[in-house]
Write a structure and sequence with these properties.
heterodimer; A: Uridine Diphospho-n-acetylenolpyruvylglucosamine Reductase, domain 3; 4-stranded antiparallel beta sheet; about 30% helix; globular; B: DNA polymerase, domain 1; 2 domains; 5-stranded mixed beta sheet; 5 helices; 5 strands; FAD (chain A); Xanthine dehydrogenase family protein subunit M (chain A)
Chain lengths: ~270, ~160
């Protein structure tokens, strides 16, 4: 790892001001992606600003029809949160599938979405549930937040403070994990909003990161059942292909994961 | 350089380290607690697992500074004098190790698993929960047996306290 200077911020404002004073800073939450990247010397920030201990950034709260997960809440705490399990059980389940137990104790929702790995789990939930990303400057709709591989709408020095999810009528998540990394070879989150809208998002599949799947949405809008997806065909163009699976394989996985997610949603 | 203050195995320590120092380096290189191992160094194998504030974490994927103020327990801190921790005893009795390299991390993760699940442990759960710990010798069979055995012993020990 290159030399760096570690700072622990005690408030969002302090984190922002530390960032402004540094030449090339990175925010550090759980560090389960940033630290491995720094160890490989693929990143060498002059300063790392630890936001994981900022009290206002930790916790899960349900209020009316909204579930809010603060940005530095570890995956384990989301997976075991009574509020999350009651409001959006599919979201708590998704958190329980990320990485391994030790990673889930450290990794956070804010870190995951700020990194926007094309095979990360949370982006699928945010997009399918039409979540809102709250930062220290503004609110950003999930559809406007994810901008392609490892790219987001965040500006330099902007800090994610929380994510709010409208509680859906029904939701489900299913993923085929890579057997070693547990990242998604394909993961699909399906949701039916309380107003009857159907939203489906897939991670791990597209070359551009998380994506909506309009063909499956249309099929489920007519008939909310796994069988409704039988006749849907997902085009392989634009999908990821690597040693773990071809684009055609992933196209089929999107369909199968969507069916399993609908079955889980009930 | 920064001074990192933390509690390790019940003892308060203050260590001057470069900010880029990992927690596992602080433990091994500065405190000579070499029971915590570095296997893959890429956050996958779990040989470096220690407990921080009661949670099993990968000490190769944390800066020492992130542990400032924390309570850390390593493999050296779980036995009571000469008496092995029930998880250590179960690994020995069930031949849950061959070369022993992954064992410290396995044991620290396994204690965390038992603490989280209490008596509700079955083989499938143990195998699933151990997915962050890699062993290249045993095929996991005796490790899983050891964890299930220890879960019973820890329950008995807890009831006795």
């Amino acid at each position: 790892m290159y030399q760096t200077t570690y700072h622990r911020a005690s408030s969002v404002d302090e984190a922002a001001s530390l960032f402004a004073k540094s030449s090339e800073a990175k925010f550090l939450a759980g560090g389960q992606t940033l630290l491995p990247v720094m160890k490989q010397r693929l990143a060498g920030p002059s300063d790392v600003i630890d936001v994981a201990k900022i009290k206002d950034m930790i916790g899960v709260e349900a209020s009316g029809d909204t579930l809010t997960i603060k940005a530095a809440t570890p995956h384990y705490d989301v997976a075991t949160s009574d509020a999350a399990k009651k409001a959006i059980p599919a979201l708590a389940y998704l958190a329980s599938l990320i990485g391994d137990p030790a990673v889930r104790y450290r990794g956070t929702i804010g870190g995951s979405i700020a990194n926007n790995d094309p095979a990360a789990d949370y982006p699928a939930a945010l997009l399918a549930l039409d979540a809102t990303v709250k930062t220290n400057k503004r609110s950003i709709a999930a559809a406007d937040f994810f901008k392609g591989l490892f790219t987001t709408a965040l500006e330099d020095g902007e800090i994610i403070t929380a994510v709010s999810f409208p509680v859906p009528a029904k939701a489900g998540y299913s993923k085929m994990p890579h057997p070693a990394s547990r990242f998604a070879l394909a993961g699909v989150f399906v949701a039916q909003t309380k107003s009857g809208e159907v939203r489906v998002a897939a991670t791990g599949a597209s070359q551009n990161g998380v994506m909506r799947v309009p063909a499956i949405e249309a099929a489920l809008k007519t008939n909310w059942s796994p069988a409704a997806i039988d006749s849907v065909s997902i085009p392989a163009s634009g999908l990821l292909a690597d040693i773990h699976g071809s684009a055609e394989y992933r196209a089929n996985l999107v369909k199968v994961m969507a069916q399993r997610a609908v079955a889980a949603a009930g | 350089m920064s001074t990192v203050k933390l509690t390790v195995n019940g003892k308060a320590v203050a260590v001057d380290v470069e900010d880029r120092t990992l927690l596992v380096q602080l433990l091994r290189d500065h405190l000579n607690l070499t029971g915590t191992h570095v296997g893959c160094d890429t956050s996958q194998c779990g040989a470096c697992v220690v407990h921080m504030d009661g949670r099993a974490v990968k000490s190769c994927t944390m800066l020492a500074g992130q542990a400032d103020g924390a309570n850390v327990t390593t493999i050296e801190g779980i036995a009571k004098g000469e008496e092995l921790h029930p998880m250590q005893a179960a690994f020995r009795d069930n031949h849950g190790l061959q070369c022993g390299y992954c064992t410290p991390g396995m044991i620290m993760s396994a204690i965390d698993i038992v603490q989280r699940h209490g008596g509700q442990l079955d083989e499938a759960t143990v195998r699933h929960e151990l997915e962050g710990n890699i062993c290249r010798c045993t095929g996991y069979h005796n490790i899983v047996k050891a964890v299930l055995d220890a879960a019973g012993r820890m329950k008995v020990a807890q009831a006795a306290e």
